[in-house]
Amino acid sequence: MNALPKPGSKADRDALRREMTAAGCSPADIAIEMRGRFRMRPREAWRRAHGWTLQEAADHFTQASGEGPGQSVAADASLAGKWEKWPGPSSRRPTLPVFYAMAGAYGCQAEDLLDQEDRRALPASELRMLRRPEHAQQTPPAPDVPRAVRPTPTGAELVRHAADESAIWAQRAEGSNVGDIAIEQFMADIRTLASDYLTADPIPLFLRTRTLRDQVFALLEGRQYPRQSADLYLAAGYLCGLLAWMSSDLGHLRDADTQGRTAWLCAELSGQNDLRAWVLSTRSKVAFWDGRLRDAINYARHGATFRPEGTVSVLLACQESDAWSQLGAEDEALAALSRARDARDALSGEDQIGGIFTCAPARQENYAAAVYLRIGHSSDALNSAVHATALLSSQPVRAYGTEAQIHISEAAAHLSAREVEGAIQALAPVLALPPDQRLAPVVRRLGELPLPPGRSAGSRQIASLRAAVEGFCLDSAPRHLALSSGDVRA
Hints:
Distance between the termini: 65 Å
Structural class: mainly alpha
Oligomer: single chain
Strand content: under 5%
Number of strands: 0
Radius of gyration: 30 Å
Order of helices and strands: HHHHHHHHHHHHHHHHHHHHHHHH
């Protein structure tokens, strides 16, 4: 007996597809040839006939499901591979919407994606649906044609009907529209966004973050296992937290607060304490710049109650100190700074995301410098600013927003000591920032500089500095966004 042919190599498959395409053959013809020659299952054969990778096929499934009526499908390469293998080991049974999405992507009928092994494994009720014209189950009868009344099944038909109903429910209950690889990729993308935000212009990052958030929201509208739902809520919480942070940096504090509320809902649904703490830190930041200082303190204190791992505990104490100092409460501000140092000493875990969702020592010193300035400790402020600058120089990634605020604190300390030259030197790198990186907190901090009156010593330098600061604030990212016709709100 002759041995059965083995599946061909990629080069063999590609050569066959090119040869048949050049001869005018359709994808259906190529899929049939692939099945016979390389012993492929039908769904793989259709994919190979189009020359798609698993990820490309998954993207086409997702797109095709959104172009017609019915339940949407969000696929990834892992799921596409499992659907092809079904009903074999390490596989997953495609749902009816998945079959329809595949058929739409491949340009065939849903039944063309089945072989006899699939037909034996499918519940009879689903097989009947797939054998109908593709949209028959979604097309309502004409208004003037009465619906036929189906008789209630009896006897053996009743038992089979009940079994079919249970099978359909079980199939839907066990189905998931997302795989572990996709969730892992979402978290990797979030880490990249949080890191890139430290050094990149905010608007492109905002758009990328919104796109990823929309993908996660779409998946949450479908079905997945409870563990996967919690992971998706975790991703959505961090993404909405990022959008809240970015919105406030762009001067849209009310929109930032809305993002913060949604992030908090996602954090609660995820059940993850570190996310809860980071969301409350973000909300504290938004409340501070919105002038709601008591809210800022309460959010920071609430976040600390979750005893999070990583550096958010340090940041929460810094934010509480920041708000107390703005209220003029020196003792409370200094006590909170002390708690931030204690939290740094007691760190036991790492930050899950990093980037903007981390509090490096330089960031902590930046808060300390601002606090000392507000409570009148100019020399301590200058020491903290100089220390922060030294710490930044040893970091592989330097956040331009944090660095700018450190230089502003240094300049303010020099101005408090009437050292105009030192202030001008400290502000030089801030005033050199490109307009798209001139964020709202930097603009606000510059506006708070204690510039002496125009007739004081060094008045010409002061006038020049004042003009430079005013020009900086007029040519800033929030102002550009306000004057732009584009809409990046999420």
